[in-house]
Amino acid sequence: MSHVRILNIDIDNLSMDELLHRLQSGGFVVTPNVEHLIKLQRDQEFYKLYQEADYRVCDSQVVFYSSRFLGHPLRERISGSDLFPCFYRYYQGDPSMTIFLLGAGPGVADRAREKINQRVQRNMVVAAYSPSFGFEQNKEECDRIVELINQSGATVLAIGVGAPKQEKWVAQYRQRLTGVKVFLAIGATIDFEAGQVSRAPRWMSNWGVEWVYRILQQPKRLWRRYLIDDLPFLWLLVQQRFGLYRNPMA
Fold it and tell me: Contact 86/113 with Cβ under 8 angstroms?
C-alpha cells in the first residue's frame, strides 16, 4: 500500500473501493483533514494514535489539492461523511457487519439508526448512543458505553464526537470492545445521516470550499476553526514543498 506524506503524517493512497474491500478484515480508520493536520503539530497523544491507526485516508479536498502541490497526488478523497454511507451500502448484504453509532446530540443517533436501516432494508445498525457533553472524562459513562457496545453484538463502531476526542476514545477503549473489528472515526456524519445537519452541495465539496457552507450553518462554533486555527496549514505546506518543514513531534 503506497502513502503520501503531508506534513508529519503518511496518508494511505487508496481508492474508496480498495478501502472498503480491505475493511472486510477490520481496522481503525482515521480521516485527516486540515484541522487534524494542525492538531498533529502539537498534540503528542493524537500524533501517537495516528501512527497506530490502520488506515489514514484523505478527508479534505484541500488536503487532496495539497498532495498535488507537493508533487505526489493522492488518487482520491475519502471523507468520513462519504466513507460511512459507502461502507453500509457495500456491506448491506453481509450479516456479519453490524454497526453501533456513538455520537451526536440527544436522539440524533437513534434517528440516524432508523434512516440507515430503512435504506439497507435490514437491522444493520443494531444500537445507538448519544453521549453526554464531556463524557470522555466520565469513567462511569465510558464503562457503560463499552458495555452497551459489547452487549449489542456490533462488529463496527462508527463514532462521531469530534476530533481528537473520537480518535482518542477509540485508542483508549479499543481493546475492551471484544466484538468490534472495524472502527470508523466519522465526525459530523451521524448528524448528516439523521438529517440534523445538511451537507454542502457536491460542487462546493469538489472545489474545496465546503468549509464556507459549514461556517454559514454553524458560525459561532466553526468560524474560528476555519478562519484562524487552520490558516498556519498553508505556511507549513509551503515549507514542506521547499524542504524546510520539520516534524515537531519527532
Answer: no
